[in-house]
Design a protein that fits this description.
Layout: H1 2-80, E1 105-107, H2 115-121, E2 141-145, E3 148-154, E4 166-171, E5 177-182, H3 185-193, E6 196-198, E7 201-213, E8 222-234, E9 239-268, E10 271-273, E11 277-279, E12 284-288, E13 298-299, E14 302-303, E15 311-313, E16 322-325, E17 329-330, E18 334-336, E19 351-354, E20 358-359, E21 363-365, E22 370-371, E23 387-389, E24 395-397, E25 402-408, E26 413-415, E27 419-426, E28 431-435, E29 444-460, E30 464-480, E31 489-493, H4 497-500, H5 502-506, E32 537-542, E33 545-560, E34 564-576, E35 581-585, E36 589-610, E37 614-617
Parallel strand pairs: 10-15, 10-34, 11-16, 11-34, 12-17, 12-35, 15-18, 16-19, 17-20, 18-21, 23-25, 24-26, 25-27, 26-28, 27-29, 28-29, 29-30, 30-31, 30-32, 31-33, 32-33, 33-34, 34-35
Antiparallel strand pairs: 1-2, 2-3, 3-7, 4-5, 6-7, 7-8, 8-9, 9-36, 9-37, 13-14, 22-36
Length: about 625
């Protein structure tokens, strides 16, 4: 019995011992587990701390970059939002040449249609895009840099192309053009926006001018847009780059510019003299339109007769006046370059109406002088060219176009091809000279030294230009093809010695017409007189009809003895007398020109400042 109890006690002791061992193992296991968990928590805490620091650093670099953008908006608004009068910055002036300019901007005018501008400057990469990264940005404004068109870069490093110093011409407060020297732009940008130290790091800014859309007029607005690249770098080396756009309205600044433009226009038909112009002894001047038909014809109930029979003189020479007298009528205006205020004695009026002479239109004084353009030198036939004398009743059609002298006798006739000739004379009765190419629509050219046709007929069968060196005289008649109009027949007389010997022509004492100073007004009744073969060319239309644009700027022109001229008349001195008539064709050009000079003062845009810049993140 005792033994049994002893055995049971031993077993109980062993069980307790085993339970204690298990508890220790569990305790050690739990300790290990808690230790591992604590280590994991510690590691996690350390990682989170490191991540937190990196996040803070990243945010710091972001805010630094953002600070650079905001500071840029302030800087641009402050420094570019004014005009040169204040001494602050403005955008450089526009480059108006094709050569790249390092202190002027090249940009496209939105209203321009110049293809070259569009190709060179319009929204394309810069010319250095293959080697310089900033030039890869597509922009519409460039600047000259080392002879190339480059993007406009404002920075503190070698990529800068914006000029540090430049000059702008603009009006000062009194409106007087003045040079304004802009200096230190890049220096100030660098000192205030590049590598700017902050408590937690620094930022650095670069600006590229992307677009400059100028206003169309000084009174309107345009837009300037910069791309701002701001890089923030925290103290522990974290970096962040932000890109934004700055835009502002362009404010033009101007200078007063006086522009003088000269235009030369050709003058329509009329009766024109460089010096004296005389309409006398029942002469008459009026107008018509050859495009409507013959003079005086009735078209749709309206008679083809107009009131634009204008006469005009430059007023050259001592006796360079306009005189309308003895029942003569000018159915148009009279104008002269000589000034007259109407206050002097009527005899000093440079447009005189005497003895029932009548200018139906207005009288104009002090008008601009007309340009009496010279006639080109008329060629002569080759030396040794033959002479030809036509016998009475002989009729010849020439095939050769060069003769030194052609002379027609009674009732002879000749047809001449276009060409160059010396003298053409018909000194007796009823001779006929035919010029032009029948059926032609283009004028053919004849060159003569002189033409004198007495009691003869000049036949024009196609459009012609007749150039004469010295003298043209027709006493007789002209007949023309029915399809021809005055503008198809041009008579040019080259001799300009009349212009070079003004006093010689006007003051000779012999009057070929035998007229005298009947009214004792101190003026010869013919205004100008001849002394045999005086200097200067001559044009004489002595009776009969004549169709032509007569252009003889250095010659005396006589229309007399009932002659009737259709077209226009230009001479150094002109007289129309003895019942003669001139019907000015309103549809043609006289050959004269008028130079008009216009001076205008305008405000010209020479550069821009800008308003407050607005920031837009990309």
């Amino acid at each position: 019995m005792k033994i049994f109890i002893l055995i049971d006690q031993r077993r109980e002791d062993k069980s307790v011992h085993n339970q204690r061992g298990s508890a220790m193992g569990i305790s050690m296991l739990l300790t290990l587990m808690f230790t591992s968990l604590l280590g994991a928590v510690l590691v996690t805490s350390l990682g989170q701390s490191r991540i937190g620091k990196e996040h803070v650093s990243t945010m710091q670099s972001y805010y630094l970059a953002e600070a650079g953008l905001k500071k840029s908006a302030i800087w641009f608004s402050k420094n570019f939002s004014t005009d040169p009068k204040s001494g602050l910055f403005v955008l450089p002036m526009r480059n108006t040449t094709d050569s790249p300019n390092p202190t002027r901007l090249n940009y496209v005018d939105p209203l321009s249609s110049t293809s070259g501008q569009l190709v060179n400057y319009s929204y394309s990469a810069g010319t250095a895009a293959n080697t310089v990264s900033d030039d890869k940005l597509i922009t519409s404004v460039k600047i000259g840099y080392n002879g190339q068109l480059r993007n406009v870069v404002l920075s503190g490093d070698a990529s800068n192309t914006y000029p540090n110093n430049y000059t702008v011409m603009a009006d000062d407060s009194t409106g007087t053009p003045k040079s304004y020297n802009i200096s230190g732009v890049v220096d100030k940008f660098t000192s205030e926006l590049v590598e700017q130290q902050q408590p937690h790091g620094r930022y650095s800014v670069k600006a590229i001018l992307v677009a400059l859309n100028p206003p169309a007029t000084p009174a309107s607005s345009g837009t300037a847009t910069w791309r701002i690249i701001s890089k923030g770098r925290s103290n522990d080396g974290s970096e962040k780059t932000l890109v934004a756009e700055l835009s502002a309205a362009l404010v033009p600044f101007t200078k007063t510019e006086t522009v003088t433009t000269t235009t030369q226009t050709f003058v329509g038909g009329g009766v024109f003299a460089r010096g004296a112009l005389r309409v006398d002894k029942n002469a008459q001047i009026d107008s018509y339109k050859s495009t409507l038909g013959d003079y005086g014809a009735t078209i749709l109930g309206i008679k083809n007769v107009g009131s634009d029979g204008d006469i005009r003189s430059n007023g050259f020479g001592k006796k360079g006046i306009i005189l309308v007298r003895n029942g003569s009528i000018v159915n148009g205006d009279a104008a002269i370059s000589t000034a007259y205020d109407g206050k002097d004695n009527a005899k000093k009026d440079p447009i005189l109406e005497e003895k029932k002479g009548d200018v139906k239109g207005n009288k104009y004084y002090g008008v601009p002088e007309l340009d009496f353009l010279d006639v080109a030198p008329v060629p002569r036939p080759p030396k040794g060219s033959p002479h030809y004398h036509l016998k009475n009743n002989e009729s010849v059609t020439f095939s050769k176009d060069s003769y030194e002298h052609i002379h027609l006798h009674d009732k002879s006739s000749i047809t001449l091809p276009p060409g160059t000739y010396g003298k053409l004379h018909a000194s007796n009765k009823s001779s006929t000279v035919t010029l032009g190419v029948a059926g032609s629509t283009s004028p053919v050219v004849y060159n003569f030294h002189e033409i004198k046709l007495d009691n003869s007929t000049l036949v024009i069968q196609g459009p012609v230009i007749i150039n004469v060196t010295k003298e043209f005289k027709l006493k007789g008649a002209m007949t023309i093809a029915s399809s021809l109009k005055p503008k198809d027949i041009r008579l040019n007389v080259q001799d300009d010695s009349g212009k070079k010997n003004d006093e010689d022509i006007e003051d000779d004492t012999y009057d070929e017409d035998g007229d005298v100073d009947e009214d004792d007004d101190g003026l010869s009744d013919d205004i100008y007189v001849d002394s045999g073969d005086t200097k200067g060319g001559k044009v004489k239309i002595d009776g009969g009809r004549f169709y032509s644009v007569i252009y003889a700027p250095g010659s005396k022109v006589d229309i007399k003895k009932g002659a009737e001229v259709f077209g226009s008349v230009v001479g150094y001195q002109v007289k129309v007398k003895e019942n003669s008539k001139i019907h000015i064709d309103e549809t043609l050009l006289s050959g004269l020109a008028e130079t008009t000079t216009v001076t205008t003062t305008t405000q010209v845009i020479v550069g821009y400042s800008t308003g407050s810049y607005g920031l837009r993140y990309k």
